[in-house]
Amino acid sequence: MSPGIVLSIAALLILTAYAGASDRPRAILVFEQSDVRGPFYAAIFSGLRAKVNSAQARPVTRYVENLELGRFHGVGYEQSLGEPFAIKYQDRPIGVILTVGSAALDHAIRWRPELWPGVPIVLAFDDEKSSTDAELPTDVTGRLTRLRPADMVTAAEEVDGEVRNRAPSLWQDYGWELAAITVALVLQTVLIIALLYEHGWRRIAEFEASQRMAELAHMNRCATAGELSSTMAHELNQPLGAIQCNAAAGQRLLATGSPDLEEIGLILRDIKRDTVRASSVIEHMHRLLSKMPSETWDVNLDEVIREVFEFMSPQALAAGARLDRVPMTGTSVVRGDPVQLQQVVLNLVLNALDSVCSRPLGERRIAGLTHPSGTSLVEVAISDSGPGVQQDRLANIFEPFVTTKSKGLGMGLPIARSIVEAHGGQIWAENRDSGGAVFRFKLPRAIARRQ
After folding, report:
1. pTM above 0.85, yes or no
2. Burial environment of residue 251 by CB neighbours within 10 A (0 to 12, 13 to 18, 19 or more)
3. In this structure, what are the phi and psi dihedrals at residue 13, rounded to the nearest 5 degrees?
4. Helices (H), 290-330
5. Whole-angstrom Cα distance, residue 367 to residue 309?
6. Exposure winner among 16, 193, 258, 430, fewest CB in 10 A?
7. What b/e string do you get for 323-346 counting C-beta neighbours within 10 Å, with b at 16 or more?
C-alpha cells in the first residue's frame, strides 16, 4: 500500500473526527510509539499535515511526542510520562490525538480521561491482532490495512526514490534452522551440566555409602571381638602365665649362687616365645578393633586364611572343631584392604563354627580352600560339615537381618557381601552334596585389577 493511500485514510479519519466536533481546537497531538525518524516516516507526516491543512479553513497545529517505548520499558517509566504532558499541554488545547503503534494507542487511552477528556483518538500503524483483541471505546477510530512486502517496497521507492539491494542475512534465509540448532545446543548444554551435577552427586553418595559401610563393618568387628573375648582372654592368660612361671624359675636358679646358664638360656627362650605369642594375640585384636581408612594393598588370600585360622584356633579347639586349610598352588594375590578381607573370612568361619556345633564330636570340620578361577580371578571357599542352609534361605541369605542363629542379628553376611563387591568380586552360598554348606567368593587377581 503506497504512502498516498495511508495518508488519505489517516487524513480522512482525522477530518471525520473534526467534523463530529467542530468546536474543538485545531491541533493534533501525535504519539509515536518509538523513534520513527527517516525519509519514509518524514514523508508520511509531511503528507498528513498537507492533507489536513488543505481541507481546513486555517492551518492545523501538529504536536509530535516520541514515547521511545522501543528502548525504555517498565511501569515506572510509563507512569512518569503522564505528568510532563499535563504541564506541556496545559495551555494548548488538543482537538484530535493520533497514535502510531499499538503501545502508543494503549497509553493514549489510559491518559485521555485525566489529560484530554472527550478528545477523539485516531489510530494508525496498529497491528491487526492488538486492535482485534482490544475493546476500543466508540470515539477511538481507525482502519486496519494489510501491508504486503511488495507494497512496502513500492512505498519505499516513492519516498526514497530507489531501493538499495542488500543480501539477506543468515537469520533471514535460515531463521527456523538456526533457531532449531540454537535450541538443540542449549538443550545439550543443559543436559551436560545436569549430567555433571548428577555425576558429582553420585560420587558423593558413593563416598558416603562407603563411609557408612566402613562404620558398619567396624561395628561388626567389635561385636565379633565381644563374641571371642573369653577365648582371647584365655589365649593371653596362657603365655602370660608361662612367662610368669619361667621368670620365677629363673629367679630361683640365680639365687643358688651357681646357676645353670644353659637352663637359664632355655628359660629366656621360652619367655621370648610366649611374649611373641601374646603380642600376636594383641596385634590380632588391635587389627580387628581398629577403625582406619580403607587402604589398598597386594593381599595374599592364603595368608589371610592362615591368620584367621590361627586366630580362631582356640575358639575351634574349645568347640571341638577342626580347622583345615588347603593353600593354592601358585599365587593368590589380590588387590584390596587386608583388614576388610580378613573380616570376610572371619565372618564365614564364625558362621561355620556355629553350624558344626550341632554335629557330634569328631565330625566337626571347617575347611578353607583357595584356587584359581579362570585366568583373572581367585576363588576362596569356606566349607563346613554342619546341616547346611535351608533351601528357601539360600536366595536371601546375604540380605540384612536374615540369620540362622538364635542370637544373631543377620549383619555378618551382608557386610561380607558389601566388602567383596566393593573389591570388584562376588559372593554366594550353596549346599554340598556330602552335607554341610560352602560359602564362596571370587576376587580379581592383583595384575588383572591394575589393568
Report:
1. no
2. exposed
3. -65, -40
4. 301-319
5. 10
6. 258
7. beeebbeeebbbbbbbbbbbbbbb
Angle CA(63)–CA(65)–CA(71) in degrees, nearest 5?
165
C-alpha cell at 134: 482490544
Of these ranges, 61-65, 114-118, 155-159, 437-441, the one predicted with the greatest mean pLDDT is 437-441
Q: Please give the grid coordinates belonging to residue 272.
A: 621370648
Whether 11 shows a pLDDT value over 60: the answer reads: no
pLDDT at 8: 47
CB crowding 364-373: b at 16 or more within 10 Å, else e: bbbbbbbeee
CA nearest neighbour of 295 among 260, 329, 340 = 340
- Do residues 239 and 232 make contact, with C-beta atoms less than 8 angstroms apart? no
Contact (Cβ atoms closer than 8 angstroms) between residue 104 and residue 69: yes
Q: Which residue is associated with the grid cell 489510530?
A: 123
DSSP string, 370-387: EEEETTTEEEEEEEESS-
Cell numbers for 299, please give them.
Answer: 593381599
Distance CA 29, CA 65 (A): 8
Quote the CA–CA distance of 344 and 19 in Å, as a whole number. 104
Q: What is the mean pLDDT of residues 93-120?
A: 84
Nearest by Cα to 439 from 373, 368, 360: 368
Least confident range from 24-38, 153-167, 207-221: namely 153-167
- 58/392 Cα distance (integer angstroms): 110
- pLDDT tens digits for 175-202? 888 889 999 999 999 999 999 988 888 8
Q: Residue 30 has which C-alpha cell?
A: 501525535
Q: How far apart are the C-alpha atoms of 353 and 367, rounded to whole Å?
A: 11
